[in-house]
Write a structure and sequence with these properties.
Chain A is mostly helical. Chain A contains twelve helices and no strands. In chain B, the strands form three sheets. In chain B, strands 6-7-8-3-9-10 form a six-stranded mixed beta sheet, with helices on both faces. In chain B, strands 2-1-4-5 form a four-stranded antiparallel beta sheet, with helices on one face. Chain B has a four-stranded antiparallel beta sheet with strand order 12-13-11-14, with helices on one face. Chains A and B meet through helix 1 and helix 5 of A and helix 2 and helix 3 of B.
Chain lengths: 237, 317
């Protein structure tokens, strides 16, 4: 636990000592704000569904971008040799790095709360529960994308390659249920269940189903555990 | 303190380390010497748990690296080759990060920080960003990070590479000081470096240990042999090779032609003196001897012999 905290603090510190975190937070807030506001007042409905549609799209590019260096940079600098020879389990390294990336995403997500304030100010008969579950969904989606991007980062010592692999996998999860049309009907059920959007849409409607939570939890767990295996595999290179 | 038994490492088909065994005792400075690619770094990486051995094991006390990797890593301070650092961190932040993983916090950290800052002379740079420090400082920062938990064992992979002569002297005296109470295992491909710093030398070549002992021991083991340098004129290469038949106790190591002169390096067992025979042979062949010089073998010759570097000094069969 202590080791996870040390790695977490180090990563968060390195996000905030470089311009990376600030650029991410500002641009993330601006893009979400722009696309939310141009639609919100047109649609004239008292909910945040517009926002819940935009954030996953913005995530697609931003999360692989902020997570791409988490492991690949250590590999290219050679500092992976320093943290790997410290008395610390690979699992703790992965969890610490993951949490740092995830917390940065959550901070970005918090910046969108201002739109909730707008909604409270101008809206009528607001479904606060749906907003709450929608936000939980967005947080979990951010968690999945961070886990995927961390996995991509562990595959290579090149940050650009990590970014591209990250986007490719994240996009796959995102697109799955939009391509159901092309799938044989026997598979469509499985593919739909694997897609992130299917689970997210439940939550942004205000439904908090344990199946959705288990789905997000297990995808995150899966990617973190294979990332751990990949870090361990250097021993047998 | 460290026992290494039959340690091997294969990278695919390449055998980087081939079944080496040795043991290291407390408070000695051991130099791990070998040409580039001889298997030094791979061995050190296996001792520190960065790589798993393909075969064999490393024992530290009653622990071994396969089953108790974390326990061993707690006892070791390691400075990897090329000394990678987080350039964006400040020096004290970097040391704090190392300390926190080693569970040194609060007052204990302040004491440890004071100790390593003093030992590694980092006084001027503690609050500086690592990326802005000079190479000499960076090397000492890496060393300070390896020593923050006051480990019993220090493993330094090429600790002086890329430093200027003054910095080399500083690091060297620091390592010597540390060796009084710790086991220091350092690798280098620079013989002078090892010779000046360590108590014991282990020479590794092509993944195998070819020599192990103090520098005096290594020299005296080779002392049975003397070297003789000969420069002659009016000779032919074929007739020089024939000299072996007339004077069997000499061993021709190399022949170099320089215009009409030949530079010949010979070896012979001490106790015999072939110089008179060589002179007589030269007269019979009507060679003109312009130089004849006897020298003792030094450590560098031994190193070159053992690691068989294929340059002009190599044996000429």
């Amino acid at each position: 636990m202590n080791n996870i905290k040390s790695i977490f603090k180090k990563e968060l510190h390195s996000f905030f000592t470089s311009p990376m975190a600030y650029i991410f937070l500002v641009v993330f807030a601006l893009i979400n704000g722009y696309f939310f506001n141009i639609q919100f007042f047109l649609i004239n409905e008292s909910d945040l569904r517009v926002l819940f549609g935009i954030v996953p799209l913005v995530y697609l590019f931003f999360i692989p971008a902020i997570s791409m260096g988490l492991i690949s940079r250590e590999k290219s600098l050679g500092t992976i040799e320093i943290i790997s020879t410290m008395p610390i389990l690979e699992r703790d390294i992965v969890i610490g790095k993951y949490l740092a990336g995830f917390v940065l995403i959550l901070l970005g997500l918090c910046s969108t709360l201002i739109h909730y304030l707008t909604l409270c100010y101008v809206g009528t008969s607001i479904d606060h529960g749906a907003v709450f579950t929608g936000y939980i969904g967005l947080a979990l989606l951010g968690g999945v994308y961070t886990a995927v991007s961390l996995f991509a980062s562990s595959l290579t010592d090149n940050q650009v390659i990590a970014f591209i692999i990250g986007i490719a996998i994240v996009l796959m999860f995102f697109m799955m249920d939009k391509l159901l049309f092309f799938m044989p009907s026997s598979m469509s059920g499985i593919v739909q269940f694997l897609s992130t959007d299917f689970h997210l849409s439940n939550m942004s409607r205000g439904v908090l189903d344990t199946r959705n939570l288990i789905y997000f939890g297990s995808v995150i767990g899966f990617f973190l555990s294979i990332t751990t295996r990949i870090l361990e595999s250097r021993k047998w290179s | 303190m460290i026992q290494i038994e039959n340690l091997s490492k294969n990278y695919g088909d390449v055998q980087a380390v081939d079944s080496i065994s040795f043991s290291l005792n407390e408070s000695e400075i051991v130099g791990f010497l070998g040409a580039n690619g001889a298997g030094k770094s791979t061995t050190l990486k296996m001792i520190t748990g960065y790589l798993s051995p393909s075969n064999g094991n490393v024992h530290v006390g009653d622990k071994n690296i396969i089953d108790n990797c974390i326990d061993i890593q707690k006892m070791i301070g390691y400075l990897p080759e090329l000394n990678p650092l987080y350039a964006e961190m400040k020096v004290h932040e970097y040391l704090k990060f190392h300390a926190s993983i080693r569970e040194i916090t609060g007052n204990k950290f302040n004491e440890a920080l004071k100790r390593v800052v003093k030992e590694c002379s980092l006084q001027g740079v503690v609050h500086r960003t690592i990326g802005n420090c000079s190479k000499g400082y960076k090397q000492r920062i890496g060393l300070a990070a390896a020593m923050i938990h006051d480990p019993k064992i220090l493993i330094l992979d090429e600790p002086v590479t890329g430093l200027d002569p003054n910095q080399i002297v500083e690091i060297r005296s620091l390592i010597k000081k540390l060796g009084r109470e710790k086991l220091v295992l350092m690798s280098s491909h620079i013989l002078q470096e090892i010779q000046a710093t360590v108590d014991r030398i282990i020479i590794i070549d092509k993944g195998k240990i070819v020599a192990d002992g103090t520098s005096e021991e290594l020299i005296s083991s080779a002392q049975g042999v003397k070297q003789l340098h000969l420069e002659i004129k009016n000779a032919e290469e074929g007739s020089i090779q024939d000299m072996k038949a007339t004077i069997p106790q000499v061993n021709i190591k190399s022949i170099k032609k320089d215009e009409n002169r030949f530079n010949i390096d010979l070896e012979y067992k001490s106790g015999t003196d072939p110089r008179e025979d060589i002179f007589k042979h030269a007269v019979s062949q009507s060679w003109v001897i312009t130089e004849m010089r006897v020298s003792e073998k030094n450590l560098e010759d031994i190193f070159r012999n053992l690691t068989n570097t294929s340059d002009e000094g190599a044996p000429n069969e």
